[in-house]
Amino acid sequence: MKFYNREKELEQLAEIRQRSFDNHSQLTVITGRRRIGKTKLILKSCEDTPTVYLFVSRNNEAALCQMFAESVTNSLNVPFPKGIRSFVELFAQIIMLGRIEKFNLVIDEFQELYNINPAIFSGIQDIWDRFKDSTHINFIASGSVYTLMHKIFLDYNEPLYGRCDTVMKIRPFDTSVLSEILKEHKADYTNDDLLALYTVTGGVPKYVEILMDRKAYTVSDIIRRVTEENSIFLEEGNILLIQEFGKKYGNYFSILTAIASGRNTAPEIAEAIGEPSIGGMLSRLEEDYEIISKKRPVLSKERSQNVHYEITDNFLRFWFRYIARNQDVIQMGNYHYLYETVLSDYPTYSGLTLEIWFRQKMKESGQFKIIGGWWNTAKGAKGQQWEIDIVALTATKEKKAYVAEVKRQSKNFRPEQFRTKIEHLSHKVLPDYEIDSRLLTLDDMQTF
Fold first, then answer.
1. Measured between alpha carbons, how far is 286 from 282 in angstroms, rounded to an integer?
2. Is 124 helix (H, G, I), strand (E, B) or coil?
3. pTM, whole model, 2 decimals?
4. H or E element: which one contains 139?
5. What is the pLDDT of residues 54-78, one digit of tens each?
6. Closest CA to 164 of 304, 28, 56
7. Domains in the chain, ordered, with CATH?
8. What confidence tens digit (pLDDT) does each residue in 85-126 have?
9. Helix, strand, coil % over all residues of the chain, rounded to 5
10. Collapsing DSSP states into helix, strand and coil, what is residue 166?
11. pLDDT at 3 over 50
12. Residues 166, 142: contact at Cβ < 8 Å?
């Protein structure tokens, strides 16, 4: 698949490189989840300029230094000392080259140095502090284990705290880019096909590339490729999260499985996993790992206990709902049953993703300052739960609110019920707001 999007990131990286070459060395930290396209972006930004690319694998330090020394020699075509067994010594030699050469230094999976020798970071700090102002190196440190990269560079107690000039977190493709990609591969795709691509990949470039390479352009083909034997998607959730959680992944997996199953309040999650004290784990999943987020009704107070939890990554939400819960089926090799299970439930499950799609498009528009939902328990005879899918407040001085009900098909819409909920919302929460309301369906995915 060709290189898509990332124009803003490439422009920023080009500006940083120019500062490095014209003034003095700069350190840029690039993070983002696995498969998000960090390496492709970095190498694209370094095209046509001298670049030393070092990938940190879990290896012996001396063996790594030998490989890295060869890479420097081949990349810059300059003599480089042999027999170096210490990464700090090797790093010092590379930085010294920055006095006579202008080049990009990319260290990919930088966080793996922690597992090889944690003392390396103190050595890097010392060398960088002494020589960055007299050298011309565009130093990019990239890593996919977000929590460890955050610890290395943003923890006050760590040696490299305060050393990075720029921190970039790479995010999934926008909705417009997903539309562009699918159109180039299948001009007559349907909105449901586009929603399926978004539901499974969430815009993660590598996942999109895998499906496009396998000509999975329709709902059924996308689900078939994801659930087939030897699909990388089947193990991806395990690989992605065990990297982050380490040996303590069991309870976190249970919490995420509960949320993906619709048990999204703290009491419901605690009951589902049989563990009453989950506050700390929920906080870590939200604040440290950034895998879940709290959702409160629009304009409710920060300390409100009316909280729902949501998995923020589309692929992980899908994976925990269907793959993690069907490990027995996968172990038995019954991939057809898995495919049929996902396909039959897709119309129901994708309704939630459609809501997320519209929220994402609204966020990308830049027209709103608050985008969320609203729910409340009515005190009427039936005691029904009243919920509005989208409530967005415009980013203008005028008090305007955009309120929407999201349905896959308009036939499932109940206009009278919706008007009643809007009246209640207007009276209780938005008394001073002008409210613009409407129904959003599959048909509105690209015209909205």
1. 6
2. helix
3. 0.91
4. strand 137-143
5. 999 988 999 999 999 999 999 999 9
6. 28
7. 7-169 (3.40.50.300), 179-350 (1.10.10.10), 366-444 (no CATH)
8. 999 999 999 999 999 999 999 999 999 999 999 999 999 999
9. 50, 15, 30
10. strand
11. yes
12. no
